[in-house]
Amino acid sequence: MTIKDKHLRGLLCLVILVLGMFLVPAASANSSSTIPSLPNAFEGSLKGDAAQAGPGLVISAYIDSKLVGSYTLTKVGQYKVSANGTEQDNGKEIIFKLGGIASEPVSVTYEHGANPVKLDLTFYGDFIPPEIQALSASPKYILNDGEDFSTVTAKVVDDSGIESVNLDLTSIEQGVVSLKSEGDQYTYNIVSTVPGEFKFKFTASNPSGNSVVDTDSISIIVLKESQLATTFGGSDGVFSSEEIEALVNNNDVSSGIKYAVLGAYFADGWDRI
C-alpha cells in the first residue's frame, strides 16, 4: 500500500467517524419522538353499591370535565381504566364515573407516564343491570327478499325501569335499531336482503346506564332462493314429496321460504302435499 493510499484510507475513516457523531443523536431523537407516551393506568376493586357491578357497565375517567379514558367491566366488582392525558394535564384532578355516577372523593391527580396505580373506588347508586328473562328469534331461516322476517321476542325487567332495548343489525346494513315495547315484552321483525348466517348483539339499559348484553341468543340464517334446494332438499338438489312435507312442518323455516319452494316446484301448491 502506498503512502497516498494510507492517507486516503485514514481520511475516509475520519469522515465516517464525523458523520456517525452527527447521525446517531439524530436517529436517537427520531426514535424517541415516535415512542408513544404511557397513559396513567388505574385498577382495583369497586366498593359500596358498586361491589356487585358487573360486565357491561362502563367506568370512565375525566380531567377538566373531558373524557380521557373508559373501560367496560368484564368482572364483577373489578375495574381498570387508563387516563390518556397530556403533559399539560400533570397535577390535575382525575374524576372517575361508573355508569355516569361519580365516585366518592379520591385524591388522585394525573401523572404523565406514571406506573400503574392500585386504587379502590367507592360508588353509591343503582349499579344492577337489567335482567333478560327470555330472548329468542323465530323462525331461524328466512328468505333474503327484504319482506320475509324473523321475529325477535324478549322479556327484560329492572326495578328502576328500562331506558332502552336495542339490536345491532350492522352486519345486515341496518345499524342499531330499537325494539318495540309493551310492558316488559319487546319485539322486532328482522328482514334482510343480505344472505348469510348472522348473530346479533342485544343490549338492554336502565336509566342509570347499567346494561346487559347478549351476543349468542339471536341467530338467524338468511337464504337466497337458489340455496333452498341444497339447504332443504336432497343431494340431487330436487325436492321429494317427503322433503317438502318435512319443510312445511319445520317451525324453524319461515312461511316465505315454504311458499317459495312450493311455488317453484309445485305449480298447484299446497294440495300436492
TrEMBL record:
Gene3D superfamilies per UniProt: Immunoglobulins
Name of this protein: Uncharacterized protein
Lineage: superkingdom: Archaea
InterPro entries (alphabetical): Ig-like_fold (IPR013783)
Species of origin: Methanosarcina barkeri MS
